[in-house]
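lol ok so funny story. i was supposed to be doing the assay writeup but got distracted and ended up predicting the structure for this chain instead. priorities right. anyway since i did it might as well share w the group, maybe its usefull for someone
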Amino acid sequence: MIWKCGSYAFDTQLPVVMGILNVTPDSFSDGGSYADVDEAVAAGKKMHEEGALIIDVGGESTRPGSAEVPAEEEMRRVLEVVRRLADEGICVSIDTRHAPVARACVDAGASILNDVSGFRDPAMVDVAVGSETGLIVMHMQGEPKTMQEAPHYDDVVTDVRDYLIDQARMLEARGVARERISIDFGPGFGKTAGQTTELTRNIQEFVRTGYPVVAALSRKSYIGKMYGIDVPADRDEASAQEALLACEQGASIVRVHNVPLTVEKLADVRPYVLLGLGCNVPLVANPGEEREGKVAMINQAIGELCMLPDSQIIDVSSMYESEPAYKEDQPSFVNAVVLMRTGLAPRDLLQFLHTIEDHLGRVRDEPNGPRTCDIDILDYQLYASDDEQLTLPHPLLTERDFVVKPLLELLPRHVLSDGTPVTLDTVTVGKATRI
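and the output, tada:
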């Protein structure tokens, strides 16, 4: 999935690091760090050299309780910094909620608009529509001055996700290309530490929207509470660890203060792998409860996947009932797709999967025939192979409805490791219905 930002295009299969450059006197952890434009530009260039593909320039503190800064003052702080960094060939993001500032910075070379107010201002929408910049649509309940007074949600994950989907679709309806839009669940913006923690542990729910997810977690108060670190500037090690966890859950862009530490930590991101599970012979099923027995078998297989070494399940699709494919004279199947992160090499993973299948009674004496449990490696990040032991991506994946539907439920705009996009247009066998 490509995130298009003006003349820049970011492949979001691998983490994109965004360095924070606050040219403010009062930001919560680094206010007043840069006395003049030269120092700010030098700091931005240094972060870029350390591995930040994007520099996010901000001229207004939006810490809890902060007052709004006049657009003229904000522009005085940021405009020359944006212009000079962009002239250096660096992708610059402008962190602003004011349309005049956004418009001036786009004219000065900014390639991304990062709006903490989520493009609620029609004037900001007009700036977005009139440019080719990438957009970060953030969720914030209320305004910075009052947002932490009494944040309330019926369900914080669902409420924030649905808001972001609505805002993204509004922008698309105005003519903004989907490929330009990313979403940010707004850690700490109108959210308690507990609510923010719940969001950060459910990033896969935002990945399911199909938009690249920004994780702006650096030095946030939930980290202070979780790790027992009172001083924001002392939270960099924990922030880097949280960035790694976010990326393993599927976040595409991480917004950070300490670039080299984060880049070092993100080297540990494990590849993702998509597994297809199928069953049409339940080991135990009462008459009339065959489907429930098949579902139970899939769940048992998922339980055994949880025991794989150096691996973690990130998300699991709904269960789907499907018509038999290739060999039609057999019972219907129940199928699901599992998204994992793993440190196991593809062929090692395959051997572990065969062991699970065998433990669950898999018999292999009839091609495409009945089976208690079938676990296929569908796609392994950045890995393609074509040999007798293992072909990746799975050669029949895109024609199978019972694979494509659950896969797209997890990753709506997924492109396989060989560059093939996954779409419903290519399915020909195994019609599937969500249970």
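Residues 2-266 form a domain with the TIM Barrel fold (CATH 3.20.20.20). The two ends are 28 Å apart (CA to CA).
back to the writeup now i swear
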